[in-house]
Design goal:
Length: 451
């Protein structure tokens, strides 16, 4: 199917008609054909949310093999934040691919890797001296941040939080909180990982300083600061439910880390790159992390990830201790430089804020008449709605799943998240227009009313 379908498919990018268009049921016959082949050829553990065969995407739409055009409120999980097939990114990829696709940076270095490192050193929070190292995936960046922190401190323990998500490799599964689907049956997990409560204002009712004190007391009593290499936290927790910590929580944890020689790692893999209405979410809380992990939105859809942080920590490893065959691939680096240019020159940080304001206003209005909306939260274009039973406050995963499913059937891609599976998250590409965004939100509102 692929060659045929792609030959007749529209070209992706912002020139795709920015419209919701359903010409078959979802999935249509050509999508069903692909899904049947997937079921036979692809391991069952690899799931999918939207049952379509994608042939093009751009701006705020995804087009499938049957000619349906879906509104994209997920950006491939906060990856195509500049829009899928952004023209600058496409051009940079094509130009670099024609020059060379790989040398291995550890064999013969090249300019674009260094330029990405320079950009990350400049853009991440804090004006101290910074260095970066590049990898392929968010999980790999997190693994390397932990390696670096351990080498720098000479300590082994790492603290992660309730509701955390840091990836699917062995070490990052250990850091991730949720058993299903991420960990169940996949152990044993890496050792010296400890979990403490996070700040979840809707469900714990604690102020930021109180939530921080609760976590710090556990760390001091059960682990001991002298044994602790790093604390890793997502400034706004992603898969865990787009949980925004109470004011004062992150600064208190970061200050404790500094006072105790513990490396404070902000995992900004999901929250980074203009997504939250700031270049990095740490800025929203006035926190300057020692190390920042990035991936997802970094390269307009190409696989790239990074650890960026204080030069003296980043330099802890002996030469040859960090790297990987593909880390900082030149095509991915060229894409990253183009995406970063788009973030900086196309007003996308401000656009994220506008998109967030629009989503927040819409669901805050709905909340006034629909008590099942327990909370509307987030920052910029990283917004979420948590659903709960109005009488008991119990998480309502069934409603959440039904609404998401109904949206997809109506041609709007929405993703769910949350430890309790009761959160719908919105991560639209920042190049989506207001009209299309509003139409997408109309569909979500209608799905909610019908369920
Ligand atoms: C997605 C994610 C990861 C893992 O990234 P991969 O590229 O899937 O390995 C790590 N941390 C956070 C916060 C994420 O959202």
């Amino acid at each position: 199917m692929t060659a045929d379908t792609l030959a007749t498919a529209p070209v992706g990018g912002p020139s795709l008609p920015q419209e919701r268009r359903l010409v078959t049921a979802i999935p249509g016959p050509r999508s069903q054909e692909l899904l049947a082949r997937k079921a036979v050829a692809v391991a069952a553990g690899v799931g999918h949310t939207v049952p379509v065969a994608t042939v093009a995407a751009g701006g705020g739409v995804i087009v499938d093999a049957d000619g349906n055009s879906l509104i994209d409120l997920g950006s491939g999980i906060a990856v195509t934040t500049v829009g899928a097939a952004h023209p600058k990114v496409v051009e940079a990829i094509a130009a670099q691919a024609a020059q060379f696709t790989h040398t291995c940076f550890m064999i013969s270095p090249y300019d674009s890797y260094v330029a990405v490192a320079e950009a990350l050193n400049r853009l991440t929070p804090g004006d101290h001296e910074k260095k970066s190292a590049l990898f392929n995936s968010g999980a790999e960046a997190v693994e390397n941040a932990v390696k670096i922190a351990r080498k720098h401190t000479g300590r082994q323990a790492v603290v992660a939080f309730d509701h955390a998500y840091h990836g699917r490799t062995n070490l990052t599964m250990a850091l991730t909180a949720k058993a299903m689907p991420y960990k169940s049956g996949f152990g044993p997990f890496a050792s010296e990982i400890y979990r403490v409560p996070a700040s979840y204002p809707l469900r714990d009712g604690l102020t930021g300083p109180d939530a921080a004190a609760r976590a710090i007391t556990l760390i001091e009593k059960q682990i001991g600061a002298d044994n602790l290499a790093a604390v890793i936290i997502e400034p706004i927790q992603g898969e865990g439910g787009f949980i925004v910590p109470a004011d004062g929580f992150l600064p208190a944890v970061a200050e404790w880390c500094t006072a105790n020689g513990v490396v404070f790692i902000a995992d900004e893999v999901q929250s980074g790159f203009a997504r939250t209405g700031a270049m990095f979410a740490s800025e929203l809380f006035g926190v300057v992390p020692d190390l920042v992990t990035t991936a997802k939105g970094i390269a307009g859809g190409m696989p790239l990830a990074a650890v960026t942080g204080r030069a003296e920590i980043m330099d802890a490893s002996h030469t040859g201790g960090l790297g990987g065959t593909y880390g900082g691939n030149p095509v991915a680096c060229a894409a990253a430089l183009a995406a970063i240019d788009a973030y900086e020159t196309e007003g996308l940080v401000e656009r994220a804020q506008q998109i967030g304001d629009r989503i927040r206003a819409r669901f805050t209005d709905l909340q006034a008449t629909d008590a099942r909306i327990a909370e509307v939260r987030g920052a910029g274009a990283m917004m979420a709605v948590e659903f709960a039973d109005p009488a008991t406050g119990a998480p309502d995963a069934a409603l959440t799943g039904a609404v998401a499913k109904a949206c997809i059937a109506e041609g709007v891609v929405v993703l769910t998240c949350g430890t309790f599976g009761n959160v719908i998250r919105f991560l639209p590409p920042l190049t989506i227009g207001d009209a299309l965004l509003d139409e997408g939100l109309d569909v979500v509102a209608a799905a909610l009313a019908a369920n």
